[in-house]
């Protein structure tokens, strides 16, 4: 098995409990699938720094603070990933589609298909969404 690739993933939660999901753009593995936004951690970069960088690059959002939530390791046919999930309720800006991806604020998550590693998190998310 290949060494996992570290990925920083952000769960933005609005005061009403809605969370932001993004749709993978055309040309990427699992294009059209929905996921929590994020991206690969560069060498020498902390996970939180990677998360902040990815949100600026992909969505034009500035994350001011985020707390580590959980980690999930998942083996896809194209990649072995170690996902580091952070929850943020403190950011500025409105999401923009800087990489041509769709995004949606979701209360009850109704978009599909969901990326397989995202599915189990939705149940866990219900425990922290309104804290």
Report on this model:
This protein is an alpha+beta fold and 131 residues long. Helices cover 15% and strands 37% of the residues. It has one domain (5-125): Nucleoside Triphosphate Pyrophosphohydrolase, CATH 3.90.79.10. It contains two helices and seven strands, in the order ββββαβββα. The mean pLDDT is 93.
By CATH, the topology is: Nucleoside Triphosphate Pyrophosphohydrolase
Instruction: Look at the structure and give the CATH class.
Output: Alpha Beta
- Placed side by side, the strands forming the largest sheet appear as 4-1-6-5
Percent of residues in helices comes to: 10-25%
Secondary structure category? alpha+beta
Run of helices and strands: EEEEHEEEH
How many β-strand runs? Answer: 7
From the alpha carbons, calculate the radius of gyration and give it in angstroms.
Answer: 14 Å
Q: Please indicate the percent range of residues in DSSP E strands (runs of 2 or more).
A: 35-45%
Features:
131 residues, alpha+beta, Nucleoside Triphosphate Pyrophosphohydrolase, 4-stranded mixed β-sheet, 8-oxo-GDP phosphatase activity
Write the layout of secondary structure elements.
Blueprint: E1 5-12, E2 19-23, E3 34-35, E4 38-40, H1 47-59, E5 62-75, E6 80-92, E7 103-106, H2 119-125
Parallel strand pairs: 1-6
Antiparallel strand pairs: 1-4, 2-3, 2-7, 5-6
């Amino acid at each position: 098995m290949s060494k996992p690739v570290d990925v920083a993933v952000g769960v933005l939660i609005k005061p009403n409990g809605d969370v932001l999901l993004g749709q993978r753009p055309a040309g990427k593995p699992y294009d059209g699938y929905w996921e929590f936004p994020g991206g690969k951690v560069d060498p020498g970069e902390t996970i939180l720094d990677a998360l902040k960088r990815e949100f600026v690059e992909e969505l034009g959002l500035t994350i001011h603070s985020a707390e580590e939530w959980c980690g999930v390791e998942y083996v896809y046919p194209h990649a072995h990933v170690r996902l580091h999930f952070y929850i943020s309720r403190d950011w500025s800006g409105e999401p923009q589609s800087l990489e041509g991806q769709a995004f949606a604020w979701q209360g009850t998550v109704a978009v599909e298909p969901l990326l397989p590693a995202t599915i189990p998190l939705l149940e866990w998310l219900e425990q922290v969404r309104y804290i």
